[in-house]
Design goal:
The complex is a heterodimer of chains A (115) and B (113). Chain A is mainly β and 115 residues long. Chain A has strands at residues 5-7, 10-13, 19-24, 31-38, 42-50, 53-57, 64-68, 74-78, 87-94, 105-106, 110-114. Chain B is mostly beta strands and 113 residues long.
């Protein structure tokens, strides 16, 4: 168990809908990262937050947004969902966002199925 | 841009035999390299990392990795494979322009008894 929790584990929804994925980082970790894993794209970085502020952005669609709250949990919001958004979404956390040497610890993921 | 390549989609090895999962990298500057393992329906688990120092890095579950700067490689190794090692293995490099991890495509390891 990495100490990173994600809810829900599974999510099935229809095209055009909006969903929210939630992540709680390991105790003491200030940085949260979101990744998307799909068969065709592999593991792709979406976005990073550090202590409540956006730190880095990757291949995140404009339909997607995220935030990190004062208690350091994070939410990833996906709207106007398309079939191609079906994927496994991972949250990861690390001790400190600026030091390149710190490993990231991953949650179990949320499997999103868009029908 | 930083990148890693895992040239093998799948590696098959018999239980008890040594295993190697290959990874090569392309970075500007010093590489920060990682190996993760993913079991079915589970998240990624951190195995080991190379930041600096000894070229042979020891990690979890008996795994180790050899950093080779001249060959720009970071191969994952284990002296004696277990059936329970069967999983999907990812090599990753930390992006120095941000903090994201850039992952390889992954290598499926199958250990047969």
């Amino acid at each position: 168990d990495s100490g990173v929790t994600q809810t829900p584990k599974h999510l099935i929804t229809a095209t055009g809908q909006r969903v929210t994925l939630r992540c709680s980082p390991r105790s003491g970790d200030l940085s949260v990262y979101w990744y998307q894993q799909s068969l065709d794209q592999g593991l792709q970085f979406l976005i990073q937050y550090y202590n409540g502020e956006e730190r880095a952005k990757g291949n995140i669609l404009e339909r997607f947004s995220a935030q990190q709250f004062p208690d350091l949990h994070s939410e990833l919001n996906l709207s106007s969902l398309e079939l191609g958004d079906s994927a496994l979404y991972f949250c990861a956390s690390s001790v400190e966002g600026g030091a390149a040497s710190y490993e990231q610890y991953f949650g179990p993921g949320t499997r999103l199925t868009v029908t | 841009a930083q990148s890693v390549a895992q040239p093998e989609d799948q590696v098959n090895v018999a239980e008890g035999n040594p295993l190697t999962v290959k990874c090569t990298y392309s970075v500007s500057g010093n590489p920060y390299l990682f190996w993760y393992v993913q079991y079915p329906n589970r998240g990624l688990q951190f195995l080991l990392k190379y930041i600096t120092g000894d070229n042979l890095v020891k990690g979890s579950y008996g795994f180790e990795a050899e950093f080779n700067k001249s060959q720009t490689s970071f191969h994952l190794k284990k002296p004696s494979a277990l059936v329970s090692d069967s999983a999907l293995y990812f090599c990753a490099v930390r992006d120095i322009t941000g903090n994201k991890l850039v992952f390889g495509a992954g290598t499926i390891l199958r250990v047969k008894s």
